[in-house]
């Protein structure tokens, strides 16, 4: 297990998929507001130099930092990471916010001339990575008693939760399931003080977005739809994640917040 660490603080944000895009922007935002940051990511060796530069910058603004380059979907790796996290956090450290930003899925069409179509296995892999993994991490955090009394769970959904986009079927299934799991966690984990919400971001240019079929066309259409005449940025989304960590947001749970500058209104 590849691990990176500096001395810990007491208020932690655990970010699943935090080396790029929305997850990294969130890590930067929270680190500037008193959070120690733990990032779980899965990246190739060729990408690590650039990622490490981002992590070195993060270390200058946070009182505690951990990073694990592991497969967050793997049960054994999750168990090992939480064991290490618990040791670093010590008796007083707790996870105040869990951010799920895992973008691992299949973007195959349901009909293709070459026969390379979306399979049940593709849907299952996408569902496990982009929906079920959130529940598995939450359950293990609860079992390890690593949750703060007012822990906030934030995950990222998209407009594909209700719209049909070519090649997006597996992700759509995962996003709908993610939202359903979030609603149920909000109810059933309420006795522990845990709040759970989804953020539906507008079209945001990230490495994951670039992999969507016809992403160029989707980007231009989104720009035209948006009354503010621009796309959503990772920083826009990170700002709202931070807002959701505040005491004033403790009565918001089980819902999906649109962070899109009005894009979905048109």
Describe the overall structure.
The chain is an alpha/beta fold and 266 residues long. The chain has a single domain (2-265), classed as NAD(P)-binding Rossmann-like Domain (Rossmann fold). It has eight helices and eight strands. The protein has an eight-stranded mixed beta sheet with strand order 1-4-3-2-5-6-7-8, sandwiched between helices. Helix 3 (75-89) runs parallel beside helix 4.
Mean pLDDT rating: 93
What is the top-level CATH class? Alpha Beta
Number of strands: 8
Q: Major sheet, described briefly?
A: 8 strands, mixed
Estimate what percentage of residues fall within beta strands.
15-25%
Choose one word for the global shape.
globular
Look up the CATH topology.
Rossmann fold
Rg, nearest Å? 18 Å
- The helix/strand series, from N terminus to C terminus, equals EEHEHEHEHEHEHHHE
In terms of structural class, how would the helical and strand content be classed? Answer: alpha/beta
Helix content: 40-55%
Helical run tally: 8
N- to C-terminal distance: 46 Å
What count of structural domains? 1
Mind telling me the CATH superfamily name? NAD(P)-binding Rossmann-like Domain
Features:
266 residues, alpha/beta, Rossmann fold, eight-stranded mixed beta sheet, 8 helices, 41% helix, 19% strand
Task: Offer a concise description of the structure.
The protein has 266 residues and is of the alpha/beta class. Helices cover 41% and strands 19% of the residues. The protein has helices spanning 21-31, 48-59, 75-89, 120-143, 169-188, 207-210, 215-225, 234-245, and strands at 2-6, 11-16, 36-41, 65-69, 94-100, 147-157, 195-201, 256-259.
């Amino acid at each position: 297990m590849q691990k990176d660490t500096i001395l810990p603080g007491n208020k932690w944000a655990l970010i699943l998929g935090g080396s790029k895009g929305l997850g990294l922007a969130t890590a930067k935002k929270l680190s500037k507001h008193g959070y120690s940051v733990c990032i779980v990511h899965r990246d190739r060796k060729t990408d690590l130099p650039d990622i490490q530069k981002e992590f070195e910058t993060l270390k200058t603004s946070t009182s505690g930092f951990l990073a694990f380059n592991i497969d967050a979907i793997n049960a054994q790796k999750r168990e090992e990471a939480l064991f290490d996290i618990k040791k670093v956090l010590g008796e007083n450290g707790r996870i105040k916010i869990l951010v799920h930003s895992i973008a691992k899925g299949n973007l195959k069409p349901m009909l293709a001339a070459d026969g390379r179509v979306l399979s049940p296995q593709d849907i299952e892999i996408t569902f496990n990575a982009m929906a079920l993994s959130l529940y598995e991490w939450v359950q293990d955090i609860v079992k390890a008693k690593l949750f703060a009394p007012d822990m906030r769970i934030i995950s990222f959904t998209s407009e594909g939760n209700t719209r049909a986009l070519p090649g997006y079927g597996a992700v759509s299934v995962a996003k709908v399931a993610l939202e359903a799991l979030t609603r149920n966690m909000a109810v059933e984990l309420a006795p522990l003080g845990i709040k759970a919400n989804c953020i539906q971001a507008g079209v945001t240019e990230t490495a994951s977005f670039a992999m969507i079929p016809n992403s160029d066309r989707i980007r231009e259409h989104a720009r035209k739809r948006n009354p503010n005449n621009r796309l959503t940025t990772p920083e826009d989304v990170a700002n709202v994640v931070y807002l959701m960590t505040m005491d004033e947001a403790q009565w918001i749970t089980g819902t999906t917040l649109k962070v899109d500058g009005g894009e979905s209104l048109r």
